[in-house]
UniProtKB/TrEMBL annotation:
<dbReference type="GO" id="GO:0003677">
    <property type="term" value="F:DNA binding"/>
</dbReference>
<keyword id="KW-0238">DNA-binding</keyword>
<protein>
    <submittedName>
        <fullName>DNA-binding protein</fullName>
    </submittedName>
</protein>
<dbReference type="InterPro" id="IPR036388">
    <property type="entry name" value="WH-like_DNA-bd_sf"/>
</dbReference>
<dbReference type="InterPro" id="IPR009061">
    <property type="entry name" value="DNA-bd_dom_put_sf"/>
</dbReference>
Length: 95
């Protein structure tokens, strides 16, 4: 199936695509420059649900509490997660 667009439609579609790309890039870069994130940003950054961030905090993950507002340090969380890593188990082949 082929869709034909006139010049105005093509220009409008191109502009919409460009704007969507700009917004996506801005969102992706936005949290990269910030060392501390809110819970929603932290969940997105680590690719988990917000409830997982609350659960991790209950397990001892570092959380900065400023006047009742919780902030999560990307580096601190990464180090905390690394501290939870278990050594890779060697599997011996049975002969």
């Amino acid at each position: 199936m082929e869709i034909k667009l006139d010049a105005d439609q093509e220009k409008e579609l191109t502009n919409r695509i460009i704007n969507l790309v700009k917004i996506s890039v801005k969102q992706a870069i936005g949290s990269q420059g910030k060392p501390y994130l809110n819970r929603k940003e932290t969940a997105k950054y680590f690719g988990v649900a917000e409830s997982t961030i609350r659960y991790w905090a209950s397990l001892g993950m570092p959380v900065a509490n400023i006047n009742g507002h919780k902030l999560y340090g990307k580096q601190s969380i990464t180090e905390w997660l690394k501290s939870k890593e278990e050594p890779k188990k060697e599997h011996k082949k049975a002969h």
